[in-house]
Write a structure and sequence with these properties.
The protein has 700 residues and is of the alpha+beta class. The chain has 12 helices and 39 strands. The protein has an 8-stranded parallel beta barrel, surrounded by 5 helices. A 6-stranded antiparallel β-sheet has the order 7-6-8-14-11-12, with no helix packed on it. A 4-stranded antiparallel β-sheet has the order 1-2-15-16. Strand 30, helix 5 and strand 31 form a beta-alpha-beta unit. Helix 5 packs parallel to helix 6, helix 7 packs parallel to helix 8 and helix 9 packs parallel to helix 10.
Length: 700
């Protein structure tokens, strides 16, 4: 839940004073102050108040809220229809308005949740799912920091009441902090974007009449949120208006906000499947599926109530019944099992069975939930990753949930397009940089046989305090509970580029990794590192080392001839120090599509491709050493970033443009990945395949 916000003044490390002379001058004259808002969570289910105190130029600014709530940290099983479950989508056009920047508490003070939003003042239509930032021509909306309000109405069938159905609301994601009301009454709240929010709405519904759902979302980030940010207030009244502030971030991508993922209402019987835990193994040609079913009865208010019966039925890809089981826990053996294999490791990658999970009680309630299952094993040691006891080499991409107009909103055509492009490249994997991706994307990864490094939203962390640690552990548990059964998920990434030069990061990540392994010990735990091996403290806790390296871009730009030597030396040191598998999780260079120069020059398509070729040669040397387990280009596609004088509108390291058109780099990468997979390209793109001749041409 929310707690008290206490604001203090930190050191200057949160201001970019080195590269911004104007900010440095202001800071040195004490015209700028950074305010830290530290979120404490004293007791669950307590009445709480939030106040933001700005004691600088504007005197007192406060946001006061009063409610009883506890944050919801279990988003529930993904809504799926079955014999016992119905679903209705609430996607579409919602009413929308912003709270004033200088009066953020207005919506709570005036109780906008207690009436239709269009009765509180002017509203606009807002698409759900989408980020609200880029869908209008309004700069204020694009750059808004603070509370945004949504509402819409809907009906539910009266037969749901007659049939005594339990009715559930589920939001796929609301970034960052959300409070949800139904018919003017508090339903639930949640802190953190990217993960689902579930609430039982049965008792608050009205049948035969219109219902109204209201969602308030706040995108403000602080040093105690995940990810982190800071609010910078000014104290220079002749240069800035009263109360002026900006939001800064510890990361280089747009902090899109809104209802990013589908919103559903669905039904279950009064006794229902609450969660399912699946683990798989192989024994010769047999597949082994171990399962554990958690059930809840609203009749008794108890979990795992006595008298509830569980059973399962396993169907193959074509719907043929192949195995059964009885009991809420058990093991089934699948003879001549079809294994889940990554793309290009099998003629039928991504093979999925359907486990029909059924629970019933003495009152005649029967719930059926279809759970997809991929039978595979996962292994790792000091040098190797294995799938089904075969070594696997990751060839993939770092990505973002990012597109024109949509921002981070989920849309199926884009999902299909992105996976089509991944397979066109010959990629077998991606990392969910730098936050958990939509379940619709993860479903596609399971189905297509694309391996996933599942990453938390802990990007650019620093400070490493106790409050942050507890929040980080909670996020990891929430992520693992959502994605634990996915065969595509092969690693948990606990962070991207933390400030792990800080000694406190060692104990901090020891605790994070320990909690992650307690939640799921079946997968290796990793994180990406930007620092060099002898100045870093977090990696000692990881099972696999992921390194982000931008030689000849952020370091020695223009000097492509240095990449091979620097990369081989750097990666070799990581393995020498820690005796763990190592992979490159980011490398690359920005390029402007259509910008060409010969000889190569930074920002050209030629330079980006040439830089990749030099990295490939280093990777081949490292692969021969036996402990280098993968390479992931940064990035799959160009993506939106905050405005800055070193970004031409966005980060342009994509091998595809933001609208998914290939640059020269995409063709070069395609050749590389198919060669690694021992697959011969049958089309005319072989001209882009690199070799000694092409490498020499690009270097000169």
């Amino acid at each position: 839940m929310f707690g008290f916000l206490i604001c203090t003044t930190p050191s200057d490390e949160f201001l970019d004073l080195k590269n911004d002379s104007a900010a440095r001058d202001l800071y040195e004259e004490k015209f700028l102050t950074v305010v830290w808002c530290l979120m404490y969570q004293p007791f669950p289910k307590m009445r709480w108040t939030i106040r933001i105190w700005n004691l600088l130029a504007t005197g007192l600014v406060s946001l006061c809220l009063a409610m009883e709530s506890s944050d919801n940290n279990w988003g529930g099983l993904y809504p799926r229809e079955s014999e016992s479950r119905e679903m209705r989508s609430l996607d579409g056009l919602w009413n929308f308005r912003l709270a004033p920047l200088q009066d953020p508490d207005q919506g709570f003070r005036e109780e906008w949740f207690a009436q239709p939003l269009d009765m509180t003042g002017p509203v606009i239509s807002m698409a759900v799912p989408s980020s609200y930032n880029d869908v209008t021509q309004d700069k204020t909306l694009r750059d808004h920091i603070g509370w945004a309000w949504y509402d819409r109405t809907f009906f539910v069938p009266t037969r749901w009441q007659t049939d005594k159905k339990r009715v559930v609301l589920r939001l796929g994601s609301a970034h960052y902090r959300s409070i949800i009301y139904l018919n003017g009454k508090l339903l639930t709240s949640h802190e953190g974007g990217h993960l689902p929010i579930m609430a039982d709405m049965t008792t608050n519904l009205v049948y035969g009449k219109e219902n109204r759902i209201t969602v308030a979302i706040n995108n403000t980030l602080t040093p105690e949120t995940i990810p982190q940010g800071s609010i910078v207030y000014t104290n220079y009244p002749t240069m800035y208006p009263p109360g002026y502030f900006i939001q800064t971030y510890n990361f280089d991508f747009t902090n899109y906000a809104g209802l990013h993922r589908p919103v559903y209402i669905y039904t279950t019987p009064q006794t229902y499947v609450d969660d399912i835990l699946i683990s798989t193994d192989i024994d010769g040609t047999n597949g082994i599926i171990k399962y554990s079913i958690q059930h809840v009865s609203t009749l008794t208010g108890r979990r795992q109530a006595k008298g509830v019966l569980c059973s399962i039925k396993l169907l193959n890809k074509t719907g043929v019944h192949v195995a059964s089981g009885v009991g809420c826990q058990g093991t089934i053996v699948v003879t001549n099992a079809q294994l889940w294999w990554p793309y290009l490791m099998s003629q039928d990658p991504g093979y999925l069975y359907t486990l029909l999970v059924m629970v019933s009680d003495a009152e005649g309630n029967l719930d059926v939930y279809p759970q997809k299952v991929g039978i595979r094993t996962l292994g790792w040691n000091s040098t190797t990753l294995t799938i089904n006891n075969k070594p696997v080499y990751l060839r993939g991409c770092g990505k973002h949930e990012d597109a024109d107009i949509l921002g981070r909103g989920v849309i199926y055509p884009l999902i299909v397009k992105d996976f089509s492009l991944l397979k066109w490249l010959g990629a077998n994997s991606f990392r969910t940089s730098h936050y958990p991706y939509a379940e619709e994307i993860m479903d596609m990864a399971d189905k297509e046989g694309i391996m996933v490094i599942d990453e938390s939203p802990a990007v650019g962390l620093s400070g490493f305090g106790e409050v942050l640690m507890k929040k980080h552990i909670s996020v990891m548990k929430e992520l693992i509970r959502r994605d634990k059964n996915r065969p595509s998920v092969i690693m948990w990434s606990v962070a991207n580029e933390p400030e792990s030069k800080q000694l406190a990061s060692k104990d901090y990540f020891r605790a994070i990794v320990s909690a992650t392994k307690s939640a799921d010990s079946s997968r290796p735990v990793t994180g990406t590192i930007k620092h060099f091996s002898r100045k870093e403290h977090a990696v000692v806790n990881f099972d696999v080392i992921m390194v982000n390296r931008f030689f000849s871009w952020y370091i020695n730009i223009g000097h492509l001839e240095l990449i091979k030597q620097q990369t081989v030396k750097d990666v070799s040191e990581w393995h020498l120090l820690h005796n763990k598998p190592v992979m490159i999780s980011e490398y690359g260079a920005d390029s402007l599509a259509g910008f060409h120069m010969d000889p190569t020059w930074a920002w050209t398509e030629e330079y980006q491709a040439a830089l990749m070729v030099q990295n490939f040669e280093a990777f081949d040397i490292l692969r021969a050493k036996g402990y280098f387990v993968g390479e992931m280009i940064w990035n799959f596609a160009d993506f939106s970033t905050p405005q800055g004088n070193f970004r031409a509108g966005r980060n342009r390291k994509g091998v595809f443009t933001r609208n998914r058109q290939p640059k020269m780099a995409a063709h070069v990468l395609r050749c590389r990945y198919h060669q690694l997979a021992n697959v011969t390209l049958a089309d005319n793109q072989n001209a882009f395949c690199y070799g000694s001749v092409l490498s020499d041409v690009m270097l000169n």
